[in-house]
Amino acid sequence: MREPYMEIKYLKYDKNTDWLAYQRKLPEALLHKAKQLNIKSPLVWPLGLTKADSPAKIAKAVDDCNERRDGIIRFIESTNVGAVTKAEAYETAKAWLEARGVKQGSLLGVDPMSPEFDGVLEDALHIHTDQHHRDWDKVYPGAERLPEAMLDAVHQLLMTPLGHEKYHLFSDAIERYKEYRSEQIRLNSQTEAQRKRDERAYLKDLKRLSDFMEFAGNQEFTSDNCNIALRGYREELLQKYPDTPSTAKRHLEVPSAALRRFADEVATNVSIASLTIRGQRAKAKVRPVLDVETELPLVWAAAHDDSYDHFFRLHVFGIFSGSHASELIQTDVSNVFPEKGYFISGGTKRDHRARPVIIVNKTHRELLLKFSDSAKGFSSVCGFRSEQTESNHSRVLKVELQRATGNRELTAYCLRHTGKHLGEIKGLSSLPAFDRIFGWHSNTVRDDYGRAGVYSKAMIDNYRGITNKLLEGLEDHESPTPDAASAKVLQLRRR
Predict the structure, then answer these.
(1) In this structure, are residues 400 and 307 in contact, taking their beta carbons and an 8 Å threshold?
(2) pLDDT band at 448, cuts 50/70/90?
(3) CA 326, CA 164: separation in Å to the nearest integer?
(4) How confident is the model at residue 449 (pLDDT cuts 50, 70, 90)?
């Protein structure tokens, strides 16, 4: 029986040792040039892993080696470039040292007059150590000299600790930003549903970063280069999205954030201007709301009808708390507290964006707890819908809304807007507790005061009173009416 690791490509192993290595040939077309540069093929690198390590860990290490190989290939292809920028020379020199197996900073603290110093240079540059000698061409006929900028970069890198390079490229900023975003997802995703949502957003941003790099090219990271590239990209986006400045703004924000973060943390001598998009403050669309006399009762009835989509039904109950689709998706079943009559929307008590939402009735409770059985494989109250994209969520809500009302103008947005509309009709929208229920925080600092009391019994009772008032006039579709004591869920009075 073959071991799982044996199926991984480019993995070198034998029967006499447990240690694993990476082994892969260079492209045939580059072998002659690689030989001139004294780079041997195949590339063989120890992974520092054994056969006992997990296949996933081994596969990740092999993927990292494939990326290293790609850098060396780029280096071999570009060594005939006569004139390169310092930053480009640094990147090429890094790949060169990688191929030679010499660590950056190897000459730090080494006496220039010692044999060790000469040995490191020999390992790093091989024949190119003496490429300035008058007889070099005779001794090494057909060999190609390294560009002077790159030769200088190799010397400087040997004297520079890793992470302290003076010259940088746009790609350095982009890669550092990717690492930052990945780490933020790992640290901040409190639920599996939230993690998947954040990862989908991250994938979109990766595309935006790629589009920017395709436009700008991999330039040296300077103030002029960054600002000129971003301004040029802004004009490109405005031409591409002339009628939707908000779309142009989203595409510009991501590369701007990446470059600015790198300037703040690494290249501190670089200053990047804040750019705006013309028309980005255009008047917001007026979203339709449900007619509270004709359409709201129909939608309310649909929320109690098993033939309608589970996610849609939860969203109807969300009218009375202003729930976004994203908040419902991030709501974990473990944060539903039927005995206390509320659940935590969109996170945990530690999340400043989370808030308590009143459980309205038995139907609402059952919808929230439908996926409480961990065997079903879902943690979100929305079940499998939590693993779908935002566009799919919007489509489901729109279809079910139109099915319930017959109104083809309604969209997913109208539910949250209807909640605000109800609050205005019933004279509740000016109450601070109403803002809290709907998740509107006009003053973040102010709002942080007293947060410990948000989930107190007194505040829950306050929220319950507001929710009760929002529900006044709606028919009770539960028959028989659940026993409030046994169900431990709010029993509503209808006027």
Answers:
(1) no
(2) very low
(3) 41
(4) very low
Q: What is the pTM of this model?
A: 0.50
Query: Do residues 136 and 234 share a domain?
Result: no
CA-to-CA distance for 89 and 83, rounded, in angstroms?
A: 9
Q: Using CA atoms, how far apart are residues 168 and 128, in angstroms rounded to an integer? A: 25
Q: Which of 58-72, 100-114, 398-412, 432-446 has the lowest mean pLDDT?
A: 432-446
Tokens of 70: 């790609």
Residue 472 phi, psi (nearest 5): -55, 135
pLDDT of residue 83: 42
- Of 288, 492, 320, 493, nearest to 408 by C-alpha is 288
Residue 301 near residue 477, CB atoms below 8 Å = yes
Whole-number Å distance between alpha carbons of 226 and 273? 9
What's the DSSP call for residue 291? Answer: -
User: What stretches of 271-324 show up as alpha helix (H) in DSSP?
Assistant: 295-303, 310-317
Read off the amino acid at residue 248: A
Question: 261 with 153, same domain?
Answer: no
Average pLDDT, the chain: 82
**345 in a domain, yes or no?**
yes
- Looking at the fold, whether 314 and 409 belong to one and the same domain comes out as yes
Do 68 and 9 belong to one domain?
yes
Q: Which domain holds residue 199?
A: 170-265
Examine the domain organization and report whether 246 and 316 are in the same domain.
no
Identity of the residue numbered 121: L
- Separation of alpha carbons 325 and 390, rounded Å: 8
Please state the domain count of the chain. Answer: 3
DSSP class of 480: S
Whether residue 187 is found in the same domain as residue 129: no
* Beta-strand pair 342-345/11-12: unpaired
9 sits in the region (left: phi over 0; alpha: psi -120 to 50; else beta) called beta
The helix (H) or strand (E) run that includes residue 20 is strand 19-24
Find, among 355, 342, 333, the residue nearest to 432 by Cα.
Answer: 355
pLDDT at 260 over 50: yes
163 in any annotated domain: no
CB 95 within 8 A of CB 149: no
- Is 274 inside a domain boundary? no
Q: 217 and 364: one domain?
A: no
- For 108-167, give the DSSP string: TT--TTSHHHHHHHHHHHGGGGGTTSTTHHHHSTT--PPPHHHHHHHHHHHTS-TT--S-
- DSSP assignments along 30-62, one per residue: GHHHHHHTT--SSEEEEEEEETTS-HHHHHHHH
Q: Are 23 and 119 part of one and the same domain? A: yes
Q: Which residue did the predictor score with more confidence, 453 or 445?
A: 453
Omega prior to 147 cis, within 30 of 0:
no
Specify whether the CB–CB gap between 279 and 245 falls below 8 A: yes
Q: Name the residue among 29, 26, 33 with its Cα closest to residue 143.
A: 33
